[in-house]
Amino acid sequence: AEAGSIYSSRWEQLAPYIAEYVGTFVLTLTFLYNYTLTGDVYWARMSNAFMVAAIVFASKHISGANLNPSVSIALCLAGRLRPRVCGFLCLAQVLGASSAAFLRHQAGINHDMVLGPDAHHHWAQVGLIEVLYSSMLCFTYLNCVASKQNNPTNDQNGFGGLVYGLCFVAGGYAAKGIANTVMNSAIAVGLGIADANGLGITSTGIGYFVYDVIGALVGVGAYRVVRPQEFPKDKESVLDRADSAHEESSQLAAEFIGTYYVVLTQVMCKMSTDTGTDLGPQALGTGAAIMSMSYALRSVSGAHFNPAVTLAVRAIGRGSGQAGGELQERRAIFYSIAQVLGGIAAASTAALIHPSRESGGPDQLISDSTPGQIMVAEVAFTFFLCYAILTTSGTSALGSTRSKQNNIAGFVYGSCIISSTFAVGNISGSLLNPASVVGFIGLGLMNQHASLLPYIFYQVLGAVLAGAAFLVTHAQLHIKDANDADSTAF
Fold first, then answer.
1. Mean pLDDT over all residues of the chain?
2. Helix-helix angle 41-63:9-34, to 10 degrees
3. pTM for this prediction
4. What is the pLDDT of residue 477?
5. Using CA atoms, how far apart are residues 168 and 164, in angstroms rounded to an integer?
6. Membrane-spanning residues where (predicted)?
7. CATH 3.90.1300.10 fits 1-244, yes or no
């Protein structure tokens, strides 16, 4: 043991595994109480997410707060955990989840578990959505916690726990009406044991476990695509390579993946909404997806995920986020193409999960809105969305002298989506994104309108106005840029 330590070296070595055991135990117990017939179905997803975030913030400095064999496996495959340590962490997590399940049974709490597909859905749909959002969880964890660029040792970010919890919000509300998502292979074991009343593990628990492990593999693959410099092929240090500029292909992949999850969540939440006044799932789910992906990918591509945002960034002639540099016309065009393709892919995936979805109730209030009301809603809120992103991501004024981390940009992006959806979701649908418009058109959502194509014009107009407003309110930045250019010209 080190001098002055109050623990022996053996206990210090066991501390991470104890933290993983306790954290997964509490987390599984939360899921067990929420996923019963007596639980509050609507807010159970938020309960799970906030508990996840709290435990991650509380134990991240001890063990890294994996709390999930899928995350530990992803870290191992990404070269951030030794296989032996990964194995012990997974064991501690599964034991924690199993202990929670047995405790629930011994306490005489035998409420039926609500697991598996809901009515009119089947296991293939549940498996697809579980794999997708488990991969999202592992992908964002790797980007926010394991990445040496996004979370350097000497200047760590403060959003790892927030992103971890937000993934459960996005996945939970996207799967509303299909099944309860688990997104944690240890909890899958605990739920399976509880579902069997402590007498073994059901096939349902095994199924969720397999889906979540597959999700880890997909998440690692996506992480490798957007951050190839984190996987050095030679003996050169990852830290030495972490500051190298991202290849354009990685940036385009980041925009595609980020837009895919944002639009998928938005579309899935919309398709699972039962009434036109129930905007909570779409607002909270989409906002959570945007926050998660923004924090994960901002240092790769700037995290636009929206052609309107890309247009606004290009209009002001500055970069957005830590990807750095001015956004040239060519790259802006490729960004927009990647975003639209991500929206199309997301809509296609949603069609697989909801193959027999019939349009109706959720769109009725929107169909009662006049074209003028829709135009004002889309222009005004796209304007504010783009302006807020420009002011929090396109400037360096927010950075303190002690840290280069921007811990608020992702929160601002998601907050704009949440507030806009609640404000005008029943007027225009609060799409605010041409990539989303393309996805909604492909699925026939909101088809009471003659066409959704005017939405794209409204959103482009809002983006241009946001760029103009930024140039007026931040003129000093452009004066500084011009002076810097003059000083380097000689």
1. 85
2. 170
3. 0.89
4. 72
5. 7
6. 14-35, 85-103, 123-146, 158-175, 206-226, 332-353, 373-390, 411-432, 452-472
7. no
